Amino acid sequence: MSINGGPEYPATTDLSDVAVGNLALAEEPIAFDVDAIRADFPILERTVGGWPLIYLDSANSSQKPRVVVEAIEDHYLNHNANVARAMHMLGAEATEAFEAARAQLAKFIGANRSEEVVFTKNASEALNLCAYTLGASLRPGDEIVISVMEHHSNIVPWQLLAQRTGAVLRWFDVTDEGRLDLDKAAAEGLVNERTKIISVAHVSNVLGTVNPISEIAALGHAVGATVVVDASQAVPQLAVNMATLGADLVAFTGHKMVGPTGIGVLWGRYELLAGLPPFLGGGEMIEIVTMERSTYAPPPHRFEAGTPPIAQAVGLSAAAQYLTAIGMDQITAHERDITAYALEGLRSLPGLRLLGPAEPVDRGGAVSFTLTTPDGQPIHPHDVSHLLDSRGIAVRAGHHCARPLHERFGVQSSTRASFYLYTTRAEIDALVDGVDYTISFFGGLR
Amino acid sequence: MKVEDLYQEIILDHYRAKHHSGLREPFDAEVQHVNPTCGDEVRLRVHLVGDTVADVSYEAMGCSISQASTSVMTDLVIGHDVAYDLDLYEEFLAMMQSRGQIEPNEERLEDGVAFAGVAQFPARVKCALIGWSAFRDAVIRAQSASS
Predict the structure, then answer these.
(1) Catalytic pick from A401, A421, A428, A430?
(2) Fold for domain A328-444?
(3) A380 to each of A318, A324, A437, how far by Cα in Å?
(4) pLDDT tens digits, one per residue of A74-133
(5) What part of B 61-80 touches A (C-beta under 8 Å)?
(6) ipTM score of the complex?
(7) In CATH, what number is assigned to the domain containing residue B66?
């Protein structure tokens, strides 16, 4: 569709035959082979201070397979131009690559049509986009419901929205095991006729908890609320399907799913997106601009002001194809196996307190914990991660952008190990040994 | 440098038994400093008598480096005049930012020299500085409040 010489986009609605680049998808899933997968990630061969790198921080940012880096390189070296405005061959190639990436992502998440996929710079921007655009129709006294286990990026935009509109921000509590406390929410009437927006994480970045999104979406839809999901930790690990998830808007990021930094995705039901006002203003998102007013492009371009992350989209598309070729079900199964093994190993250490579910049921591959020495002295996560780093083991220490959740568990911070398709049992053994050493180091020097 | 050398006995001793810890009256200024990347927090009070730092009291949460550094700092600054303490701050800051290139003056920095090793770990420099930065901020506020 082109209006008055405006940008022309390739028709990409038909998702039945999407395969871009030179990564033809395998018909049958190949056997899951962690050693073969590791060979695709050159960074895993490096050493840190003489120790083999043990990268257990994938919930923070995953590593990249060679095919993703090569796809980006090929784009920049052979097809680079701006999209949807350069009327020459390279412009056409770049536009086609960008829109093909959109279609690839749509297929990867089971979207009905590629126009439901909006590219943002990250998940935070996608969530801010939701808060800003949904907020246009909020009135004082309306209620927004989030949860105490959210990442700051799914808290702060809603706080800002509540301050701007006079809406009331409320939240689900969690049980001591780290599950959403749906009983408490029901008892206090958390979701009610005043609820206009519910926004929760699919998978907690700290606890690993997988939340029952369909159930929460049903609660929200019963009262006419729009249901937003932060799927940043879910999409990399689980076969998330937009058609069956039940949510209205879903945000996730590229760099946690073996894709590049600088790109995120907002998926939305098309009818909902079509009714939302613009977010950022600028090029690409308009139809006609006069000095007095403008009309806006339909989704997804309405929400993509300015030159979008083009090469990043190409890289993310390669990432989605890579994960698909391995098989999301196999990745989920590997994640579960490694998480179960890690939970078992870590639980054996005296002085280790786990935050989040202790059993690998409805649980993703992030394991957070606190440590104390045998005589009861807490060991600060900064000190834990520094000692582990000195043995080549990369974990995250701090509040993991979830300070309220740590407060809920009565701790200031924690150490988090997180796993992905390239994590091995031997790496978990090294982690358990390293944590054991850390406990004795800080305990033994007393 | 091995990480075990970073955690010298002096640092671990101060971490386990922090000097001058707790919030006390009277005070002329109170500040709160946080390290948002890791969540370390310090609430710190300064009491001046004339130009002398009569007391520094604090409540802090954080890693061994931040806690020990704050504890050592109070030992060094209490009982001295403000100008001397601010010079000492600059000296400690220079050592921490030197990546191990500056040989610290043990006469003046005493237990503070134990943090010279921390300067070789850029991620931990902020930890060692949080208490000192809070002190400097509080002193300046206390001075402007009294003038």
Answers:
(1) A401
(2) Aspartate Aminotransferase, domain 1 (3.90.1150)
(3) 39, 39, 14
(4) 999 999 999 987 789 999 999 999 999 999 999 999 999 999 999 999 999 999 999 999
(5) 61-67
(6) 0.83
(7) 3.90.1010.10
